[in-house]
Every structure is written in C-alpha cells, then in structure tokens.
Amino acid sequence: MVERVLVPMDDSELSERALRYALDVHRDADVTVLHVVGEPSRMMGAATGIALSEDREETIRELSADVLDRAREIAAEYDATVDAEIEVGSPARRILDRAEAFDAIVMGTHGGSLADRLLVGNVAKTVFQRSPVPVTVVR
C-alpha cells in the first residue's frame, strides 16, 4: 500500500495534472508537494535573484509561493491537504535525494518553458531511470 507520495511541482499544467492524479489514485496517502528552485547561475534568470537578495530564505519562499498556493488549491478540490516543501538546487537531484522517504513519486512528463527543458535536461527521465521507488509519469 502506498502511504507517502512525493509530487514534484513547478508552474506547469503537467505538474498540476500529476498532483490531481496522485490525489485521485492515492486517496489515503500523505502527499508531499516538492518545489525545487534552481541554483543561481548565469543561465537561470529567476534563480539569480536568490544570490542577489538580502534575505535568501524569503526570496526562495516568494519564488515558490504561487506553485505551492496552487497545489493547496488543487488539494482543497479533493477535500485533501498536502505538505509543501521547498528545495534549492538541481530538480532531479533534489527529487532523488528525497525519494527513499516515500513509497512513490508522481510527476509530470516535463515542465517549465522550452528553454528550461533544454538547459536543465529532462528531469522526469532522470528521476524515472534512477529512482529507488516507483515513479508514475503523467501526461
């Protein structure tokens, strides 16, 4: 039985579909939404703001607020609640670092803009190939 489900989310429609799927299929499970904010680099504009901010933690919370608020709204539609967590770094790496604490991962096939997918790589593929727990990929 699946008791704990990890749902990585960004601001894409596909990650919202993944959360809906997790809430529908794993009705009795504890669902944790994980939003990963990219590390600052010359190629990641929004994350660069983290390095330049005076209050790094507050900036990370602000960058994550819309995604996590949307996750809570979706959960409310299912009369459920979700735990919301934020990580900073490479999305695939952060998801895989957390995987063993869960029974399953449910995630969208891809997310973000085309530029994000080209620069960051295919997060879903990496997680699917390396996860120690079952992964459901939602389209």
Automatic annotation (TrEMBL):
A Pfam family: Usp
Family of this protein: Belongs to the universal stress protein A family.
Positions of the UspA domain: 1-139
Protein name: Universal stress protein
Alphabetized SUPFAM superfamilies for the sequence: Adenine nucleotide alpha hydrolases-like
Signal sequence, start to end: none
